[in-house]
Amino acid sequence: MELSKRIRRPKWTDARLLVGAVLVVVAIVATYLLISAANATTRVWASAVPLVPGQVVSADDLTVAEVNLADIGDKYLSADAGFPDHSSVRAVIAAGELLPASALAPIAELEGRIVAIDVAGSVPTVVDTGSLVDVWAQPSSQGLDDEGVDPQQIVTSAPVSNITREVGSFGVGDGARIEVFVASAELADVLGALDGNSVLSVVGAPAEVRAESGQS
């Protein structure tokens, strides 16, 4: 009889049981919130076409992508916040890439301008909108006694914003007009080479490797 009195079922009011029950509830809620956060998505801007510095970016150039909220933080532009007017990008954004917030800039703040360059020779087929090119200038010969001057590279890794091949003034199937974003430090050399006394050529440049590509 004495033994049965000593072995009694614990009461729910026992402090240790209450603490244990609270910890179980907290663990369940924390797990639920963690799973919910992992599955949560948000709408951000992505490029529908290649975006190039100097080009005014509009909503028509963009598309909306659903991405995992845990992966983005504040790195990318929310599609629910609209898009700033008169904005461009600081570097080439390939079609399909998410648009990093750090890549956006007011177009007036960019250190460079888009310049149209007429190229008399053929242009590599790999050169297209969004690709990078080097621009070379070869002064025109002034006569039979002119030994000529070696071509000089006047632009390095310039992003192409537009290209029109087979420009008629150079003959059928030859020549192109290429619009490239030229850095301010190289503008003087480019404008000087556009005086008609130089033959300009472009070659494809290796793509830049960005530490943060923006790929989802």
From TrEMBL:
Domain (SAF): residue spans on this chain: 42-105
CDD domains given in the database record: SAF_CpaB_FlgA_like
InterPro entries per the UniProt record, alphabetical: SAF
Keywords: Cell projection, Cilium, Flagellum
UniProt superkingdom: Bacteria
Protein name as annotated: Flagella basal body P-ring formation protein FlgA
